[in-house]
Amino acid sequence: SGQMMVSAAQEARLQRCYEQLRRLGLASKFAVEFGATPVSSAVGMTTNGLEQRTGLPLSAFRPSPATGRMYLLGGVGLSVVEVLLARQLGISPQPLFLLTALVLGIDQVLLGGAVFETLLSSVRPEIKNRVVYHEAGHLLLAYLLGCPVQSVTLSAIETLQRTSIGVLAPGTAFFDAELNRSAQTGIISRDTLDRYSIVVMGGIAAEAMVFGAAEGGRDDERTLIEFLQRNVASNTGGFGMDQVAEQARWSAVNAIELLRKHRDMYDRLVAILEKNRGESIGACILEMEGHPVTS
Predict the structure, then answer these.
(1) CA atoms of 177 and 16, how far apart (whole Å)
(2) Residue 66 to residue 64: CA distance in whole angstroms
(3) Of 90, 164, 197, 213, which residue is 20 to 30 A from 173 by alpha carbon distance?
(4) Strand 171-174 versus strand 149-153 pairing type
(5) What does the pLDDT read at residue 102?
(6) Is 203 within 8 Å of 138 (Cβ atoms)?
């Protein structure tokens, strides 16, 4: 999930679509939380502060390495199978190891891990469910904070089928007009920084709210850290790792409090995403707003 860099014409067209829906009364909650956050300042947001505000431990907002462990265990298991197969065939297992490495490499580089993702989902079907809840958090918060969403995909295969942006991981593509302008001027306002941080932490916050702890979101964490260190520190002279951690905690608190505040919209969004897999953002908006499309 992340900020979508689009042309000025695409940005203006998408913005007009959302504004037109709002004028028609079909997107009344779009940007309703723009400029407003439950906790006003990130300064002083400690671990204790996060836990008191959310009622959850800090560990709930730290993505679990479970997927990585399954990848490792899967690799070990596959290696054992290849050794046994090689013995049956009376050949060295080395060519099988190389072939497997080649297939996995192609999957990661060209297919965004779609093959591995499919295999993992067959072993742990609940992963598909978690992705829906995770992306719903990003989508809803982007919407509430006034960032138009262009698309959402819930698997690498769906991303491969629907987009041509090169990044094949599941995700929510949104843009922030002010952030895009800031990228050109080199000056990022605090409000813009805070809004982007909350949307990026939205998936982790959603999983923590629903399941009690997040599994996905390592890429979100990395995105936020890189954004703060590369794009913000150079402009402000600040944002060392202590400030990054403080901003991440603050963003997680605001994300989960906004999701709880708009839980009815979130639940409706999850339901429509499970049904249409994000094929229609318009249908997602109407469902969130309580104007479901009947077929």
Answers:
(1) 12
(2) 5
(3) 213
(4) antiparallel
(5) 75
(6) yes
